[in-house]
Amino acid sequence: xxxxxxxxxxxxxxxYTGGKEWLGAIDDRxxxxxxxxxQLPNYAAPFATEGNVYAPRYRQASLYSMLTRREDAREAxxxxxxxxxxxxxxxxxxxxSPRGFVVVGVEQGGVLLDRLIKxxxxxxxxxxxxxxxxxxIETLVPASDYNGAKGIKACQxxxxxxxxxxxxxxxxxxxxxxxxxxxxxxxxxENHNLVVLGKEETLCVNPLIGGVSEADTDERxxxxxxxxxGLEWDTPPALVSRKVSAHCRGGILYVVRPNSxxxxxxxxxxxxxxxxxxxxxxGDLKTDFRxxxxxxxxxxxxxxxxxxxxx
Length: 311
Hints:
It is built from 8 helices and 12 strands. It has 311 residues and is of the alpha/beta class. 44% of the residues are buried.
């Protein structure tokens, strides 16, 4: 690990379609291939230029558990959290960089990360002070949990550190997709059990601007969508910039995507309900992380000292 980079804890999305078991094995070949060929290149790689990425496997709940409120499905997701918490403890023990850390979770990984933040990071003042930012991608979380009352709040702009960036995106003009997502969503209660979202207002931080806003953000501010599936880890994808617009409404991010086959799914039900095999906000998240990293207090001090030495 390079001490010149920040440390990044990345929790992947659902890749286990399902079978006889509610939980997927860590060494399942099909799920591993999807994580390595689609999820890491699209969702972890934006953080790799400035970050040491730690992306543990965990015994994830199956895809079906994301689509039902059954008690055994909830128990599977709660079980998966135990693996993620242990992995985070290992991450902390292995950290090499003094430049702070970032936590990133996608879809199922974002839900698990939500609990991790509330139970491991928020209560620990020293740990909270080292967190540059938290990203919960394609994840619905209650806005009231991140209003600043508990010490960590939603990001307002890209210069801010120690804050939360969370969103769940649907196609613009498709409120039915938003309604389906809200009906399926489960959130953590005070006893760390998963309960229905109900009428809870959800958090929407627009990744195009890095802050909470319901203003329309047009495609001119998009820094680049990418389909990085199949690329080697250190191969930067071609970015399609100025083609994505987005706005938050009622806690959901409505998105207009590029009119290209590159950013469409194959039409199968598993593809439709899994996280996209491309990232419409690749360039935006990469820049967002870089800006927050450079504005993190420790890194500002280092730059100031370096500048003085140079003079």
